[in-house]
Write a structure and sequence with these properties.
Keywords: Pyridoxal phosphate. Belongs to the pyridoxal phosphate-binding protein YggS/PROSC family. By secondary structure, this protein is an alpha/beta fold. It has a single domain, classed as Alanine racemase (TIM Barrel). β3, α4 and β4 form a beta-alpha-beta unit. Strands 7-6-5-4-3-2-1-8 form an eight-stranded parallel beta sheet. 37% of the residues are buried. The chain has nine helices and eight strands. It binds pyridoxal-5'-phosphate (PLP). Pyridoxal-5'-phosphate binds next to β8 and α9.
Length: 219
């Protein structure tokens, strides 16, 4: 199936970049995919999944988690502050921390629960007005704020502009992580995950290349 091919391409890109085999985590992005496709990928052994919508994920993952031990869920879509509580109960990692109000909410939840998902700061590397993420010039200060709140910061995440070469955006994110002492880099999707690995990605988020085209659903 496509999963095996994507895993093979990741291993090849790791080797080409002089990276250790297995140093890149594949997040299989299962948002709005039919259940039979997700079940097939679970059956093939994939355990790390990405979802964009809290409600959709809360509806479908508890049953699969019972059936397939070891599932890790990553939140990769924009997170509304009023859904943060459901999100921290459901997800092992949140890739889309991008504003102080959300950070403060996550810090309060971490304090009351005694634990927090791993967090990534989403950076709007292309400074696109319609896109989520902190602007590059505000990122260093925001990272310091998160550290001041005692939150577990795993790294940075970006979604490059659709009409541009992704590589300069990946390189910018990698440089930003390095100067802030962060090791996690969530970057690369179906069309550009190999380029992301060449620039140091530790987490690639691949959806349609594994599951096929997303079936549009009314929301
Ligand atoms: C949907 C989505 C992906 C996966 O996109 P594909 O092009 O299908 O691989 C990755 N990251 C984010 C943030 C997404 O929303």
């Amino acid at each position: 199936m496509a999963l095996a091919e994507i895993v093979a391409r990741i291993r090849k890109a790791e080797a080409a970049a002089g990276r250790a085999p297995g140093s890149v985590t594949l997040i299989a992005v299962s948002k709005v995919q039919p259940a039979d496709r997700v079940a097939a990928v679970l059956g093939a052994g994939q355990r790390v999944f990405g979802e964009n919508y809290v409600q959709e994920a809360a509806g479908k993952w508890p049953a699969w988690r019972d059936q397939f031990p070891g599932v890790k869920l990553h939140m990769i879509g924009p997170l509304q502050t009023n859904k943060a509580k459901v999100a921290v109960d459901l997800f092992d990692a949140i890739h889309t921390v991008d504003r102080p109000s959300l950070a403060e909410k996550l810090a309060r939840l971490a304090e009351s629960r005694g634990t927090s998902p791993e967090l990534f700061v989403q950076v709007n590397t292309g400074a696109e007005p319609q896109k989520a993420g902190i602007l590059p010039e505000d990122a260093d200060a925001f990272i310091a704020t998160l550290r001041g709140l005692g939150l577990p910061l795993a790294g940075l995440m970006c979604i490059p502009p659709e009409d541009q070469d992704s590589t300069p955006h990946f390189a910018l994110l990698a440089a930003m992580a390095e100067r802030n002492g962060l090791t996690g880099l969530s970057m690369g999707m179906s069309a550009d995950f190999e380029a992301a690995i060449a620039q140091g990605a530790t987490h690639v988020r691949v959806g349609s290349a594994i599951f096929g085209d997303r079936v549009p659903q009314p929301r």
